[in-house]
Amino acid sequence: MWFVSLCIRILTWFFVSHSIECYVYGYFWHITDIHLDRNYSRNGNAKNGCHKKIEDIFAFNFTDNGVYGNFQCDTPEFLFNTTIQNMKDLHSRPDFIVWTGDNMPHSKNGFDMDTVYTEVGVITDLLIATMFYYLIKFTSLQGGFYSTLVSPGLRVIALNTILWLSENNENVRVKDPEEQFQWLETVLSNSIVNQEKVYITGHIPPGFYPRTTPKQKGIPMYHQHFVEHFQSIANNYSYVIIGQFYGHFHLDMFQIFEYKTGTSKGSAFIAPPVSPWHDDQSSYSLPVNPSVRLVRYFTESGGLLDYTQYYLDLDTANCRQKVIWGFNFKTDLLIPENAQSSTS
Ligand SMILES: [Zn+2]
Ligand SMILES: [Zn+2]
């Protein structure tokens, strides 16, 4: 009898001592660097982006770059379609999609704007048709940057980072190209008034490209005065900005921002690409399997919870003629409370 009583006491203590806290969380996808290439050919020249030249058409050519793509080339339509289908199969109703650019194939000649608009339109249509049913309507896109409220209290800011890019010398003498800094500060200060939290998104992250050849210096992404300006704003509004998401590096990595004071405030997540392309002429460029990322976040606070990184094993997919999406890892993004306070 005492045993039953003890059990009841233990159970009572157990149930009372565990207060249940309910958090509501949602999901969003982060995809980047799609680099869709409609001229990809299984029999094309891998040294020429897997494109077929006129003379190749009549050549007796056994080369097979693969149905799903090649690490020397950009994304074939087949790979792109299976990527979107995979996202739908894994989570078909994301709250929103963070899509951080680089949609055109790598090309030395560039593309005219009509072609770029068409390709972005095609990708957008496919995303909407496959799983996404809401298209953000913009009132103004001057300068190529905008912000939108994705849920009550959570705003996403999309920056045009090309304006600050170190390779872009058009704006180097301009203090605030297209007045993006001024706009960013206005949006962030309005977010404080409206009690919103903010995710910052962009194609090119601040800081340096992390891989270099021996004795080579890191390549800065923005001009120095632009990165300083951006970081001072990010520092001033670090309690509003609760996530930053970028692409461009074709690597899976994160950044922690350190300021002149020696403190670390904020971080950025850089997602790996859909395109398997890498620059095989440079020893610091790495081939990466086509990847997409599913992020889980608290819908009320916007706080990041974790993300799951999915990838397609390209060699196996080509070999077996079958797509098998695997998942690399699931990362916990929750920072213990005391760690947060020590860096704030
Ligand atoms: Zn890219
Ligand atoms: Zn890029």
UniProtKB/TrEMBL annotation:
GO CC, any one term: extracellular space
Domain spans labelled Sphingomyelin phosphodiesterase C-terminal: 267-328
Assigned keywords, A-Z: Glycoprotein, Hydrolase, Signal
Endpoints of the signal sequence: 1-22
Xref: InterPro entries: ASM_C, Metallo-depent_PP-like
Gene Ontology MF term list: phosphoric diester hydrolase activity
Domain of life assignment: Eukaryota
Entry-linked SUPFAM superfamilies: Metallo-dependent phosphatases
Protein name stated in the entry: Acid sphingomyelinase-like phosphodiesterase 3b
Presence of the UniProt keyword Chloroplast in the record: no
Pfam families linked: ASMase_C
Keyword Isomerase: no
